[in-house]
Amino acid sequence: MSKSSGWWYGGVLVLLLATGVLALMAGTTWIGLPQVIYAASHPGSTTFVTVFSLRLPRVLSSLICGGSLAVAGALFQAVFRNPIADPSILGISSAADFFKLGGALLLPWLPGRNWVMAVVGGLVALIILTSGRALADPYRLIIVGVALDATFVGLQQLVSSGAAQVSRSTFNGTTWTDATTVLILGALGLIGALLLAPWANYLKLTDDALKSVGMPVNVIRWSLLLLGMYLAVSVTAVVGAIPFVGIVVPNVARRLVGHDYQTLVPFTMLAGAWLMLAADTLGRTVIVPSEISAATMMAVIGGPFVIILLQRGRGFHGMSTR
Amino acid sequence: MECQHVSYQYSHQTHGLHDLTGTFPTGQVTTIIGPNGAGKSTLLNLLAQRLPVQAGQILLDQQPIAQLKPKALAQQVAMVTQRHQLYDELTVREVVATGRLPYHGLLQAVPDAEVTPYLAANGLTELATTLMQDLSGGQQQRVWLAAALAQAPSVLLLDEPTTYLDVHFQQVLMTQLRQLAAQGMTVIQVLHDINQAFRASDWLWLLQDGKLVASGTPAQLRDAQLLAQVFATPIEIVDVPQLGPYIVQIPQ
Prior knowledge:
heterodimer; A: ABC transporter involved in vitamin B12 uptake, BtuC; 12 helices; 72% helix; B: alpha/beta; Rossmann fold; six-stranded mixed sheet; four-stranded antiparallel sheet; 9 helices; globular; transmembrane (chain A); transmembrane helix (chain A); Probable heme-iron transport system permease protein IsdF (chain A); ABC_transptr_permease_BtuC (chain A); iron (chain A)
C-alpha cells in the first residue's frame, strides 16, 4: 500500500467514526454526546431505547449494507471488466426484489423466505445476463442489464399494485433482528471478498493469458460473480434495492487508492459503509419528522455521478475493453 | 516437442491444419513460416493448448500435452502472443509475477523474491513499479517475454515477437532467443519476415494451406523454387556481401 493510500484509509476511518457518533445523536430528537454515554450505562431509559434499540441497529445495518453494495460493485466491475457494471444497474437487485415479493405472495411459509427468494432472483438475473453475447461486449452488457432492471421493476409494479408493498428500500424501522441478519450475511460475504480480492486482480488479464499460466478462469469468474450477487441480494433481502453505491464508491476509490483490488476492496468496503451511513443519516434528518429513503438519497447522489463519470469520458480510464 | 498427425479444423471455415507430423528440436530455435492463412498461428495455439487438438497428438518429452493438467503444462510451455491486452492497470512487477502463478496455489500470493530475478534478467528492475500503459510497445513486449520466462518453461512459443520492435530491438530479441536455446530451451516462433526467419533460426517449418510442406535447417530450405511455389510469387536468392544469401521477391 502506498503512503497516500494510507492517508485515505485514515481519512475514511475518521469519517466513519465521526458520522457513526453523529448518527447516534441525530434524529427526530437531538441527543447530545454526554446523554448518549449516560444512556449506555442506564438501560431502560427512554434515551437508551432511542439510541440503542432504534438508532444503533439502523446505523449498523446501513454500514454493512453500504460496504456490501460497494464491494459487490467492485467485484462485478472486475468480472465484467467494465467500470459501470454493478448489481443494481444490471438488474440483479431488482430481480431479487421482485422474487422477494413473489415469495411473500406465493410461499409465505418458506423459512428464510426473503433471503432465499432474493438469491433465486439474483441467480435468474445473473443467468440471463451471462447466457448470451452480453459478456463479450461492454455496451451490450449494460443495455441488457438496464432492460433486465426495467423488466423486473415493471413486473414488481405490476404485481404489487394489488398487494402491500413488501420492499421498503429504507433503513427506517430496522430492528435488531434485521440488523443481526444483515450483520451475519454481510460479514460472511465481506470476509469472502477480502480473501478473494487477489482473484479480481487476475481478471485484468485476458482469459487466454490466464489459461496459459494454468489459472481456472471460469472458477475465478463465477466465484467472484456469485459472491458479488450474494452481497447485493443480501441487502435487497433485508432492506430493498439501493442503486449506485456499487458504481460511485469503487470508481472514486480507484482514484484515491489505486487499482490493486487487495487495497481497493477493503477501502471500498469502508467508504461504502460511510457513504450509506451518511446518506441515511442525512435522509432522516433533513426533513424531520419525515424522512427520505436511502434508495432515494443514493439515486439523487449516484445518478448525476454516473452521468459525469461517463460524459467526461474518463469512466473507462484504465479499464478500456478496447 | 513433436506433432503426430495433428489436425485442426475451424468450424465454418475452410482453412485449418491437416495431418501435421514433425519435430521441434530441443534446445534450438524453430521458426514457422508460410503465407497468410497457412495455419502458423493455429499451430502455435495448438502447441500452447489454447486450441484443442482434434486429431493426432502433440508430444512433449514423449508425453501427450493434452494429458497434462493446466498448471503442469504452464510449467513446461509458455507463450508470448502478438498482442497482449489488459483490462485494467497493472504494474510491470505484477505482470511478471503472473508468470509464477503456475507454481502456487490459487489463494497463495507470489513472493516478490521469486519475481525480482526475472525483472533483473530482462532489464526491467527500474520499471518494476511502472504501469504497463505507460510503457512503449517495445517495452511492453519485453515485460510479456519476462512473464513467459518466469514460468521457467522448457518450451517458449512466440507469435510474431518482432511486430512492435524496431530493427535494433529485433536483433536484441533474436540474440536473446538464441541464448535461451543454447541454455536448453526449445524456442518456437512465427515470423513473417522470411529473411529474419532464415537468419535467426536453427530449424524451419514451412507451412502452406495447413500442411507441412517441408522442415529442415535454413540451408536445406533455402530453395528459390520451393519458396516461390509456397508463397506463390517469383523468388530469387541473391548473395549480399557481409550478409550472405538473401531472399528477394521479384516484381512481376
